[in-house]
Automatic annotation (TrEMBL):
This is O-fucosyltransferase family protein. Belongs to the glycosyltransferase GT106 family. GO terms for cellular component: cytoplasm; membrane. Its main location: membrane. GO terms for molecular function: glycosyltransferase activity. It comes from Medicago truncatula (Barrel medic).
């Protein structure tokens, strides 16, 4: 009996061994086969999942707002473009987050046009905001490099062989503002004959709004709306904010630009005490690049050149028909005067929230003392909001406006501040009753909601033109007749 049971055990283990061998052979064959179709099938699936996430992120297209993103990113990254580089372009962006964002788009476009190798941009650390963040702290640097590789070569640093030790010198210069492609071709490209590395030490508004070739304008859009992504940490927290807000129903993102730096820069002191007005004046004098020092606040306000005060914003929101129950997200930094200045706005709209009220201290800990990273959260919420209302047309307001136009013209109320303060003052002095004031505000803004329109072109006055990134109309009508889309009354030669 013992011999027989031992034989059974041996047969049992032999069968198990053979089965294991067969299974391993099958597994090896499967792996081999999978290598052949992996790039087509599996990568297609993962890329599809990735693209779904990308479609949702910039515009948060959930069932609450019913907006469908018209511009998903490419299914896969295209092969690198093969070209002979004329040299390296280093850039140091100046200003706040959105000013630097627009500059990055311009610098990629310039590098592509001149067949240069772009070095990952350096961000401003010396401005009023004193944010120590590097590019990779705010933006997804790998996605930035990979998603543009079919257009321009981007590296993280200049190779050591091009430093002064090997006889190379870097030419530092600010390019001329509002320049077209001819300037870069005729004035900048020849400099690479002597210098293999150029460093643009200022990048704000260095490329023209209008008159550029269509392919360059579309590249600016591609960089802005597809290649520039925030880091996963910022995007995850931004999505969390957006989900929390959408649970409350349709919400307004109010870009309340009543912050210390803006008031000091603009010289606007409406509603401030004498002590506060003096503090703002001292700040303006402390920064040498704020050249205009003596400013009469009342004159500036009457010209529509001041951000609305929180009190003025409360009146305008009520006049536009927003009710007390409307959730309002304050997309801004610290409001000058704090809760005291927000009291009237909060009384009119009790559901006012800020990111600091919705997120925990742990959520925000990694972003503290990094103003650009905090601004990135406000940017995401503003793009995803049901209605966006900026109280001043600064860089963030303009870029959010353009992003929302690109996302099927989502409602953006562009306030006519000159007319608004005129109506506010008439209401305050009793000249206009409430219903007259409300009717006046609605009438002024009836056609100022971010609808399709062509940029205004002012020959020889580029600073007064409509800004490209607020209305990149060349990128908005690829499958339509632009004249019909924009309307003949808006058409102009560009």
């Amino acid at each position: 009996m013992e011999v027989r049971s031992e034989g059974i055990r041996l047969r049992f283990w032999f069968v198990r061994l053979c089965s294991s061998i067969v299974l391993w052979i099958c597994l090896v064959q499967l792996v081999t086969v999978s290598e052949l179709w992996h790039s087509h099938f599996i990568s297609g699936i993962t890329t599809g999942i990735y693209n779904i996430a990308q479609i949702q992120l910039p515009n948060q297209n959930d069932a609450n707002n019913g907006v469908v993103d018209k511009s998903p990113p490419p299914i896969t990254f295209l092969p690198p473009r093969n070209y002979t580089s004329n040299g390296f372009l280093r850039v140091s962006c100046n200003g706040g987050l959105n000013q630097m964002r627009a500059a990055i788009c311009d610098m990629v476009t310039i590098a592509r046009f001149l067949n240069l190798t772009l070095v990952v941009p350096e961000l401003d650390k010396t401005s009023f905001w004193a944010d120590p963040s590097n590019f990779e702290d705010i933006f997804d640097v790998k996605h930035f490099i990979d998603s543009l590789r079919d257009e321009v070569r981007i590296v993280k640093r200049v190779p050591k062989k091009f430093n002064s030790k090997y006889g190379y010198s870097t030419l530092e210069m600010p390019p001329v503002s509002w320049s077209n492609e001819k300037y870069y071709l005729e004035q900048i490209l020849p400099l690479y004959g002597k210098h293999k590395v150029l460093h643009f030490n200022r990048t704000d508004a260095r490329l023209a709004n209008n008159g550029l070739p269509l392919d360059l304008q579309k590249l600016r859009c591609r960089v802005n709306y597809q290649a520039i992504k925030f880091t996963p940490q910022i995007e995850n927290l931004g999505r969390k904010l957006i989900r929390m807000l959408h649970k409350k129903g349709p919400f307004v993102a109010l870009h309340l630009r009543y912050e210390m730096d803006m008031l000091a820069f603009s010289g606007c002191t409406q509603g401030c005490s004498e002590k506060e007005a003096e503090e703002l004046k001292r700040l303006r004098y402390a920064f040498p690049w704020w050249r205009e020092k003596e400013i009469i606040s009342e004159e500036r306000r009457s010209q529509g050149l001041c951000p609305l005060t929180p009190e003025e914003a409360a009146l305008v929101l009520r006049a536009l028909g927003f009710g007390r129950e409307t959730p309002i997200y304050i997309a801004a930094g610290e409001i000058y005067g704090g809760e005291r200045r927000l009291a009237q706005l909060r009384a009119a709209f009790p559901q006012i929230v800020k990111k600091e009220m919705l997120l925990t201290r742990d959520d925000l800990q990694q972003f503290q003392n990094h103003s650009s990273q905090m601004a990135a959260l406000d940017f995401m919420v503003s793009v995803a909001s049901d209605t966006f209302i900026p109280t001043y047309d600064g860089n963030m307001a303009k870029l959010v406006e353009g992003h929302r136009r690109y996302s099927d013209f989502r409602k953006t109320i562009l306030l006519d501040r000159k007319k608004v303060v005129e109506l506010v003052d008439m209401h305050h002095n009793g000249t206009l009753k409430w219903h007259e004031f409300a009717d006046g505000v609605k009438q002024v803004h009836e056609k100022r909601i971010g609808q399709p329109t062509q940029r205004k072109v002012i020959i020889d006055k580029p600073k007064e033109e409509d800004y490209f990134y607020a209305n990149p109309h060349e990128c908005l009508c690829e499958e339509r007749n632009c004249d019909a889309f924009l309307g003949h009354h808006n058409s102009s030669q560009v």
